[in-house]
UniProtKB/TrEMBL annotation:
HAMAP family: GTPase_Era (MF_00367)
Region of interest (G4), residue spans: 133-136
Function: An essential GTPase that binds both GDP and GTP, with rapid nucleotide exchange. Plays a role in 16S rRNA processing and 30S ribosomal subunit biogenesis and possibly also in cell cycle regulation and energy metabolism.
Segments for region (G3): 72-75
Domain KH type-2, residue spans: 209-293
Annotated spans, G1: 25-32
Gene Ontology, cellular component aspect: cytosol; plasma membrane
Name of the gene this protein is made from: era
Top-level taxon in the UniProt lineage: Bacteria
A molecular function (GO) term: GTPase activity
Protein name, UniProt field: GTPase Era
One example of a Gene Ontology biological process annotation: ribosomal small subunit assembly
Amino acid sequence: MDTEQYFAAQPAAEGYRSGFVAIVGRPNVGKSTLMNHLIGQKISITSKKAQTTRHKVTGIYTDETAQLVFVDTPGFQTDHRNALNDRLNLNVTEAMSGVDLVVLVVEAMRLTDADRVVMKQLPKHTPVFLVVNKIDKEKAKDKYALAAFIDAVRAEFDFVGHEVVSAKHGLRMANLVAALKPLLPEGIALYPEDMVTDKSSRFLAMEIVREKLFRYLGEELPYAMNVEVEQFKEDGGMYHIYIAVLVDKENQKPIVIGKGGEKLKKISTEARLDMEKLFGCKVFLKVWVKVKSGWADDIRFLNELGL
Ligand SMILES: Nc1nc2c(ncn2[C@@H]2O[C@H](COP(=O)(O)OP(=O)(O)OP(=O)(O)O)[C@@H](O)[C@H]2O)c(=O)[nH]1
Ligand SMILES: [Mg+2]
């Protein structure tokens, strides 16, 4: 069914609400983990390392009373200026300008200068809701200390409301959805009710490989890499996916490949299993490593990658 037919088929239910909700915050506060838990599927990649998310990723939550279209954004970059980081920040500010509601995520008991830089970017004419994440942390278990922390954050910006959650453990997700719904305008569902993301399978495949690189490589390297889908085709009820990992320098290649190809094998096996789970079919996946120097500062190349 195309979009127009879909709209025609949908009567606007009384009191139904729908809208776009941008999830923003400094790197590593748990934005992507939160979005995945809200929609119940792993659409956006996550890792222990900061600056994991590079693209805006849409996750659609639908129930009988509302549809919330979440937009997960890259963590706002405050150090290390290059063309890539400038582009990521531009994506964040753009994402905030076109939505009905902004959710600022902070980590419980830890407000940093990087959080304050993000707060300065928050829009003036769109409501902003505060989410205090990671309340499972030991330090956040003291109710009085947590309440004082929330007061301190709310003193720094005029939020329309707040909620505390643990995205990792899926705690208080329903409370959060209930708090966000009334902040959206009345209107019909914007996407079909069984749709969970507007991203293509091709994009999701690329992101899954990037997540494994973050997971299995050292501190610095994943930031100097990117991933390119060279081929993606369906054949005989199976996906055939060919993906290149782009590194900056020749000497980074063996680090990704590992002794006897071990590391690359681990990365591609795990990525394939995740893809099969997400796509619900068998996947043939081939991953290899290519050298492309200076890609993070090559504006034309960033455009080609859709960043
Ligand atoms: N303890 C705890 N850890 C969490 C929680 N939510 C997320 N994390 C962890 O925090 C780390 C960062 O999570 P992400 O969801 O990737 O964070 P992000 O804000 O999307 O990060 P960027 O995309 O890099 O900006 C991961 O190791 C998560 O497992 C939580 O509620 N409690
Ligand atoms: Mg993220």
